[in-house]
Design goal:
This protein has 208 residues and is α/β, with parallel strands linked by helices. The chain is built from six helices and five strands, in the order ββαβαβαβααα.
Length: 208
């Protein structure tokens, strides 16, 4: 008979509530655990992360428990994620990776936004077309689209810089024209008295 007990620690990490489990997780422990977690959800905890890395045993009803908790949390517009890479949990949840979000460690969990987006797009395309796309292919397509978007932004940046350069040249020409007109008016005002005395001959109308 198993004498060890399941220990769990609650930790708030940002918007997520982490439940770190250790020890054997047996069938007879599921009712009490379910009640505790449902109470947490009812109290307003919507984003749950279960760390199962230190769990030594995972019985069959435990997997069903997490599937039920997943539905409960989703019904409250929340999320449920599992973190582990040990043999016991991997063997128990290996057939449910497409249903329950599973991450090997906290680092990849924080980076899970990109993979979640890929998985959502893959499932959406599968439902619409019936075509199954593997994760490497999805990542490759995402990189292609990302490269195309980056190239588009680079071209727009070059065009904007060229337009700004042309605007600067136009402004310089306009300033030069204004300065030239001012200088011409100044010279005309200085020569006007000489023109009135007939000292300066008007050659503007002279034909060659």
């Amino acid at each position: 008979m198993r004498s060890e007990t399941l220990d769990y620690i609650f930790e708030e990490r940002g918007a997520d509530l982490w439940i770190v489990l250790s020890g054997p997780f047996t069938n007879d422990q599921t009712p009490t655990f379910r009640e505790r977690i449902v109470t947490l959800v009812e109290d307003g905890n919507r984003h749950l992360v279960f760390d199962l890395e230190r769990v030594t045993i995972v019985d069959t009803q435990v997997v069903q428990l997490f599937l039920q908790l997943l539905n409960t949390v989703k019904g409250k517009s929340g999320t449920l994620k599992l973190v582990f890479k040990n043999e016991a949990a991997t063997r128990a949840f290996m057939h449910y990776r497409s249903i329950i979000p599973i991450f090997p460690d906290a680092t990849l969990l924080r980076q899970g936004g990109l993979f979640s987006l890929i998985n959502r797009q893959r499932r959406l395309m599968l439902r619409k077309t019936g075509i199954r796309i593997s994760r490497p292919v999805a990542i490759f397509l995402l990189l292609i689209v990302g490269g195309w978007i980056a190239s588009l932004f680079f071209i727009i940046h070059l065009q904007n810089r060229h337009i700004k350069e042309q605007q600067g040249e136009l402004q310089e020409l306009s300033q030069w024209e204004t300065r030239s007109r001012i200088e011409i008016d100044r010279l005309r005002s200085r020569l006007r008295p000489l023109d009135q005395l007939g000292i300066i001959q008007d050659t503007s109308a002279t034909t060659p």
